[in-house]
Design goal:
heterodimer, A: 389 residues, alpha/beta, TIM Barrel, two-stranded antiparallel sheet, 12% strand, globular, B: 212 residues, Methyltransferase, Methionine Synthase (B12-binding Domains), Chain A, domain 1, Rossmann fold, 2 domains, 5 strands
Chain lengths: 389, 212
Amino acid sequence: MNNLERFKRAIHWQPVDRILTYDFTDSGPLLEQLGGYRYGRSYSWEEIIEMNALAWKNAGLDVTRFVYDPASHWMGTKIVNWIRFFGVDPENWEVGQAGGTAWISKRPFSDLRGLEKHMPQLPKREEVREWFAPAIRQIQEILAEHDIVYIGAVEGPITDAYSYMGMELFCSAIYEAPELAAQVMDCCGKFSAYVAETYAEVGQVPLLFMGEDVATTTGPIFKPSWVQQEGVPRWRWIVDPIHKAGMKFLFHTDGRYGSFLPIILDELGADGLNPIERNGCNDIFAIRQAYPHKLLFGNVCCAQTLPYGTPYDVEDETLELIERIGPQGGIFIGSSSEVHDLVPVVNTVTMYRTVHEYGQYPIDVDRIRARRAALRRRGQLGLRAGCAM
Amino acid sequence: MSEIEAIYRAVVEGNVTGTKSGVGAALAAGISAERVLKEGLIGAMGEVGRLFEANEFFVPEMLVSARAMQAALTLLKPYLAEAGASSAGRVAIGTVKGDLHDIGKNLVAMMLEGAGFEVIDLGTDVSPERFVAAVQQHHPQIIGMSALLTTTMPAMAATTAALREAGVREGVKVMVGGAPVTEEYARTIGADGFARDAASAVRLARSLAETH
């Protein structure tokens, strides 16, 4: 059974031979050490895909949604898409990049009056399809040769809108110019919907991910009733063609799902969640208990355990997920959000290899518990030394 | 409704026009700028913080209220200076080196202003050296550091170390916050306090200013 076959069966809760690993990796060290990437050299897009695939294969990653190019942050791609598909003025946009992160550092507007002169236009379905169809095929075909499953990903309309406008201006517009905020969200939502339709048409992998960051570690960024009112109808533009094609839909927000869960999982009908951040944000085990038929992607902590834990800490946290959720199925194990530069490569590899070794079905819970007990008996845990089994 | 109540209500509702006209009416009625500040603006922003912590207000609501407050403060500042009104303290705040996120930092800055603090906003991608320079130049009681990414959080430790090396650490309180930051991390790097959100940042700043 290859990974695509496993994936297709797993997302439909059909028996498989093992748990799959899933992650978003934007780690330079991982790409260098396991993919052969060298900073300072130029690579073609195909070479970048190949190096990522090699790194993932060597690390033990089965499923992903992002090809990492250290020389080109994804924030820049957003602006390219806005220019290409929304007809916005290409001048005066800048992306600042520092320390692995990037943000839009300059826009051609700074207030609502300026925004009115730089409003995006609705994208055209055929133009989006023409651009994305070959790109989707290329990535999925190259990665399939390496037995890596590449799931489709789009940005949510709220997130893309506040990326376009800047969070402060977007928040002001919600109250001072709601029609402008709505128009920007419409453009962004339609764009993602057309990309989703293209995935449904040409993609080999029957799952789409939508990134809609509406929460922080402490709770919602926006009033949940506002998110329900403005988000759900636009999310349906994206979800409906996916479900119509028999595909699954994965919802993403950083931070705490909390009061959004009924909106996302019940009202919208999302099939699963990723990421599922820890650090007092979300309890993946409680989510599984409340929503036993929803797919879960995650969630070894990328804020603490992965960057600062020992490999044994990583192993223990991974084993806990396999032990407590693995037997029920519907889990794809990886980081709680991303494998970034601060995560030692040995920890990343430990996480995935633990899944490969202990995630074989039927899950041997006794063997896992024996291993976790041994880690504690031998004093091999660092950050997780105080964590009960 | 009194002039103060009108200002209070306008700030909570995020009504910039109403706030500004309310301030004008209050000053014209002979109400002192200090009273407008304390009972109108600071009182209202306290209520905004309470509503945020009660999950009734969220980022947009806090932001529009803070903007109304800032508009009022701009009108009041000359009168406050003339009256020699003192601030609750001086805070220099910035997002740490390598991090370009500013919304959290901006919200905290606005809430601190709304609580009567004098705020020096250092912006984003602020190096440890710039934080040190800010302490040496502005003599704040408090330094506030924000980080939104796990990868930029270590800059907080570097900054507290830089403050120690420059010999200015003892004279300033350090508070930290941001998505990946925890109480435990704050303790590890020797910060004086951790705030999980903008509302609790105000309470922390008040407490740190009192012990400074």
